[in-house]
Amino acid sequence: MPEHSQHFSLSQARTAPITPNDISSLLLRHGSMTLEYYALHGHDEQTPHRQDEIYVIATGHGWFRSGDERFSVKEGDALFVPAGVEHRFEDVSDKFETWVVFWGPDGGEGSARS
After folding, report:
1. What share of the chain is helix, strand, coil (3-state, %, to 5)?
2. What is the tally of structural domains in the chain?
3. Which residue range(s) make up the domain with 31?
4. Start-end of H helices in the chain
5. pLDDT, tens digit, for every residue of 35-51?
């Protein structure tokens, strides 16, 4: 567990190893939160996740499908995806990279409400 602030550059993220049996690189784990780096090359084959998720597009552009919605995304955009929602990136540029943050309980924070 980190005892102080940490800094992660895009150049460091690009050289981090891909997590075994995954499509992204794990950069940090702190409690239920993980910070990951995902560089999409070709078709996005991700499946719904067990935790809530935020993407921050680092480079590139394309389309994002979440449930029945599809919208344009580009560098600098941030996206929130609740746990369990079908989603994927589509028709992305050649150099498409995104930071990914997962956190919370299985089923997402919405499932923890009473």
Report:
1. 10, 45, 45
2. 1
3. 24-107
4. 10-15
5. 999 999 888 988 999 99
